[in-house]
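testing teh design pipeline on a random one, pls ignore if ur not involved
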């Protein structure tokens, strides 16, 4: 036997194994680095809140902070109740009953998600205010002249904000509740009916408790968006924590005070994350039936089928059809004024930063998800979860957290150049598109991680084992085997991140470079000046860009649920 050949083969095998381990470790190190960058804004906020250059805590607590807290809590409670009632009721009807246009409502009920809350607020304010067409028609009908002659609800109020934000945020609850209702076996409701309970009691005591964890996740996501909102509350003059942060930072010029308000908002974020995490953990144990049987939808008759129709049609009508019709009308009427070089520049800016953020997000998501696939240890899992925390943080909070370390870096570099070379380096990162794209990436990385991870979980582990047997390193395995199989998940993630970046307003307002506007800031500025017509074309582009991922999401959900149901034969 040629022992030298055997020894060389053994050495080669050991070397290849060592290289594979080193390559795998590099993925984990990259994930830790991504998690650190995602955590940096939180650490920066907490540090500056505790050690501000100018401590205004006493002033905030004695003056405006209680009002900010009260309004924020009232808004979140109101929106939470609104999205719960709308999302759960519509999900239950389309899942359990047959009525006119039911199969169309399955995806129509998702469409209001394409509208940013601030856009729908602008539309309904123009429709319902004193000079709007509805009040004008009321005055013409009854012969009234002044606002004091009659009572009409004020849309620019806390109630108006709750109503309008609920119209565009309920799809989060609808999605989660509908999925849970569909997954529930009909055996459970059959047993409940045998015990003498009617449909309403079966819903209250069987279907709703089982769906409660999923509903909690949907409500938590809707409340995260509520906490993030700035355009609506600013337009309605509701002083929430987000509006207060914006005022203290830009109007008062106090970054430390903004960090202190941001630290209070982080408290709300922690509560919402705990609610979302508890919902996901408990949802694993609520479906305890060992046998599954598809539900046969009950055909509603008479007034009940029309009641179900109205309950499902109202959110679509008022949350999508009416504001879209108004946008189209204004966009056509003011097209010549709106379609100008400035508008085209804003559109290009929006597309540029959104595409950059989407590409970076999916690249980092692939790294994080692949690292979790290679390393199933606790530390890698924690790092991946930290990297996904940005979506829970409002854009204004992230803007504060990002600008603090970037400003410190710019000041350090500037001080070095002044001391050693006698000139100022200026702002290298702060106030640039880099800061804006970095904030977008941290905020929306969770979306790309979730989509890529879902797709990667469907790839068999035997693919990795076969690649290792052939001697492929980890990166080549990813490039040759995984990426072709991940194209669908990557495309979905990129599209959703792109649209979310197009809609993002608070962070863009705070971090955009000088003379750099996006469609979101363009719409906000015109609407703030009561020029709703001139903002319509930009709003329409934002809404239409959001429709494609909504349609894609609806098709994906339908295909996935059909596949899941096919795996459970009727018995």
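output:
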């Amino acid at each position: 036997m040629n022992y030298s050949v055997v020894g060389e083969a053994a050495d080669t095998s050991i070397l290849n194994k060592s290289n594979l381990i080193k390559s795998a470790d590099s993925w984990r190190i990259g994930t830790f680095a991504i998690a650190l960058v995602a955590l940096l804004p939180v650490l920066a906020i907490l540090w500056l809140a505790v050690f501000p250059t100018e401590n205004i805590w006493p002033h905030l607590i004695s003056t405006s902070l209680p009002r900010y807290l009260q309004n924020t809590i009232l808004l979140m409670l109101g929106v939470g109740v609104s999205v719960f009632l709308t999302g759960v009721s519509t999900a239950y009807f389309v899942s359990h009953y047959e009525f006119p246009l039911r199969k169309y409502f399955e995806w129509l009920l998702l469409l209001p998600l394409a509208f940013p809350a601030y856009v729908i607020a602008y539309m309904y304010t123009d429709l319902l205010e004193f000079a709007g067409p509805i009040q004008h028609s009321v005055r013409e009908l009854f012969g009234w002249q002044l606002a004091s002659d009659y009572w009409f609800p004020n849309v620019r109020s806390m109630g108006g904000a709750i109503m309008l934000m609920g119209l565009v945020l309920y799809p989060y609850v609808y999605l989660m509740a509908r999925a849970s209702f569909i997954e529930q076996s009909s055996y459970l409701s059959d047993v409940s009916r045998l015990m003498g309970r009617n449909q309403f009691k079966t819903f209250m005591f069987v279907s709703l408790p089982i769906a409660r964890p999923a509903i909690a996740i949907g409500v938590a996501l809707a409340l995260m968006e509520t906490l993030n909102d700035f355009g609506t509350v600013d337009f309605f003059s509701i002083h929430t924590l987000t509006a207060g942060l914006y005022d203290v930072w830009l109007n008062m010029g106090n970054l430390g005070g903004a960090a202190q308000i941001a630290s209070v908002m982080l408290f709300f974020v922690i509560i919402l994350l705990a609610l979302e995490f508890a919902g996901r953990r408990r949802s694993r144990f609520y479906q305890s039936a060992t046998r599954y049987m598809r539900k046969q939808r009950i055909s509603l008759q008479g007034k009940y089928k029309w009641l179900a129709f109205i309950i499902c049609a109202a959110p679509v009508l008022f949350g999508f059809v009416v504001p879209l019709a108004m946008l189209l009308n204004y966009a056509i009427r003011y097209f010549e004024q709106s379609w100008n070089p400035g508008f085209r520049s804003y559109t290009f800016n929006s597309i540029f930063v959104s595409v950059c953020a989407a590409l970076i997000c999916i690249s980092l998501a692939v790294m994080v998800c692949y690292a979790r696939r290679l390393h199933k240890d606790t530390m890698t899992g924690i790092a991946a979860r930290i990297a996904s925390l940005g979506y829970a943080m409002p854009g204004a909070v992230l803007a504060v957290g990002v600008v603090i370390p970037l400003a410190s870096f710019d000041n350090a570099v500037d001080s070095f150049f002044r001391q050693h070379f006698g000139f100022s380096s200026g702002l290298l990162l702060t106030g640039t598109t880099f800061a804006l794209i970095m904030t977008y990436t941290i905020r929306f990385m969770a979306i790309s991680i979730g989509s890529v991870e879902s797709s990667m979980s469907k790839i068999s582990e035997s693919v990795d084992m076969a690649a290792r047997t052939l001697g492929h390193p980890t990166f080549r395995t990813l490039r040759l085997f995984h990426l072709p199989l991940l194209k669908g998940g990557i495309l979905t993630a990129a599209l959703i991140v792109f649209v979310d970046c197009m809609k993002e307003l608070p962070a863009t307002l705070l971090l955009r470079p000088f003379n750099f506007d996006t469609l979101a800031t363009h719409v906000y500025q015109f609407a703030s000046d009561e020029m709703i017509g001139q903002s319509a074309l930009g709003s329409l582009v934002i809404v239409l860009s959001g429709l494609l991922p909504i349609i894609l999401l609806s098709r994906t959900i339908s295909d996935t649920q059909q596949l899941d149901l096919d795996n459970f034969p009727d018995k």
